[in-house]
Amino acid sequence: MSQLFSGEVALVTGGSSGIGRAAALAFAREGAKVVISSRRESESLETVKMIESAGGEGFFVQADVSKSAEVQAMVAKTIERWGALTYAFNNAGIEGDTFVPLAKYSESVWDDVIAVNLTGVFLSMKYELPHIVAAKGAIVNMASIAGLVGTRIGSAYNASKHGVVGLTKAAAIEYADQGVRINAVAPGVIETDMAGRAGFTGADSAIRPRALAMHPMGRFGVPEEVADGQADR
């Protein structure tokens, strides 16, 4: 085992399941102390148990990333517990209404999706960056293929992920001369609970064949591929 992140501290938002959980476990395997944050306590504590069962260190901080005070507390508790923050994966997100045309899209759902997916990434970076700059660390933000091209998955989701891409580019330029790397990942459909709720996965999904046809490998990805950067799993 390489222990690439031995002794470092990593924060993963949306670490209760899916890509966030896979990323938290990957950080822990490489020796990082991992903070799991999400709104869902029981699932997040399960992620912590998985880390500890594998011999790693982790703890849970409940937070809604759309709320500034909770994000500030999330980062403060990280520093209080382990004295530093080196890496962050700002992954928390929601899908909103899927396959609903813009003229029929709920304004309240729009507000929720933008608040979590875009404002949540902004707030997370805002309060993470002072510590990550001090540690000369790095940030990865969760975007999506829907942040690079237009899709029918929903106007709010598309807008939020395009926003994450733009926000990441701006932040990367702003902090490059301070030795901090800020990047985004933009996967296609990944086999997660969110993809299931959106209607992409599941044997009875009407759109699964069409969605699969848009993936050159003829299959959807799995969370570990995003977390590990493995293209040959």
Describe it.
The chain is an alpha/beta fold and 233 residues long. It has a single domain (9-228), classed as 3-Layer(aba) Sandwich (Rossmann fold). 46% of the residues lie in helices and 13% in strands. The protein contains 8 helices and 6 strands. The chain has helices at residues 18-29, 41-53, 68-82, 107-135, 155-175, 193-198, 208-213, 223-228, and strands at 9-13, 33-38, 57-62, 87-90, 138-142, 181-185. The protein has a 6-stranded parallel beta sheet, sandwiched between helices. Helix 1 (18-29) packs parallel to helix 2 (41-53) and helix 4 (107-135) packs parallel to helix 5 (155-175). The mean pLDDT is 90.
Radius of gyration: 17 Å
Per the CATH scheme, the topology name is: Rossmann fold
Going across the major beta sheet, what is the strand order?
Answer: 3-2-1-4-5-6
Query: What kind of sheet is the major sheet?
Result: 6 strands, parallel
Total domain modules: 1
Secondary structural class:
alpha/beta
Measure the end-to-end span: 18 Å
CATH homologous superfamily heading: NAD(P)-binding Rossmann-like Domain
Which residues sit in consecutive blocks of at least 5 with pLDDT less than 50? none
- Mean pLDDT comes to 90
Total helical segments:
8
Using the coordinates above, name the CATH class.
Alpha Beta
Shape: globular
Order of helices and strands: EHEHEHEHEHEHHH
